[in-house]
Design a protein that fits this description.
By secondary structure, the protein is α/β, with parallel strands linked by helices. The protein contains 6 helices and 5 strands. It has one domain: HUPs (Rossmann fold, 3-Layer(aba) Sandwich). Helices cover 43% and strands 11% of the residues.
């Protein structure tokens, strides 16, 4: 008889980014998908991404937990960094805020392991994300950050294939209200389905 698989809390930013990481984790763990993304704006965009992520988690046989969109706490975390370019200090503060909430929830629920889908994107600094996760875990005895760089071994390509196959809603920017969408508007998107 094999030992029970360990539960891992998977911070997920959207169904697209969760595709490959969730499939990979399901082979060795019992993932719980944690949607903590108060950076996503406007409310309709947040709800669309949340609902799509929930649908994917449940269809994969995983529990889904939403950490409500506490925009005030997020804005406090990035205050003074609103004009930073994409990939700059605002993004680092945003990663830290969302992963800190993920770590706190894991600890509160007795889940000893957490990780994030953020590393699957070629637009995100995986080294920074992994360092933040490790630092947060070190601050909480009994908590371990699973340092998965999901973009390795064609992870991004695989997550895009899963998204296309599943017909996931695909946004074309991170959703941050302070980042201009590809059409130049701030906090809005014209994202197509793929």
């Amino acid at each position: 008889m094999s030992a029970p698989r360990e539960t891992v809390l998977l911070h997920a930013c959207c169904a697209v980014c969760a595709g490959y990481p969730l499939a990979k984790l399901l082979t060795d763990y019992v993932p719980v998908v944690y949607f903590c993304n108060p950076n996503i704006y406007p409310a309709e965009e947040y709800e669309r991404r949340r609902d799509e992520c929930r649908r994917h988690a449940l269809a994969s046989g995983c529990a889904f937990v939403e950490d409500g969109p506490d925009a005030d706490a997020w804005e406090q975390a990035v205050r003074g960094l609103e004009a930073e370019p994409e990939g700059g200090r605002r993004c680092a503060a945003c990663f830290r805020h969302r992963l800190a909430r993920t770590a706190a929830f894991a600890r509160e629920k007795g889940i000893g392991l957490f990780t994030t889908t953020l590393t699957v994107s070629p637009h995100k600094n995986s080294a920074l994300i992994l360092a933040v996760g490790a630092e947060l875990a070190a601050e909480k005895p009994g908590l371990v950050f699973l340092p998965e760089n999901f973009k390795k071994r064609d992870g991004f390509k695989q997550t895009m294939a899963i998204a296309k196959e599943q017909g996931f809603y695909r946004q074309n920017f991170c959703g941050c209200r302070f980042r201009a969408a590809p059409d130049g508007r701030r906090g809005e998107t014209q994202a197509p389905n793929i």
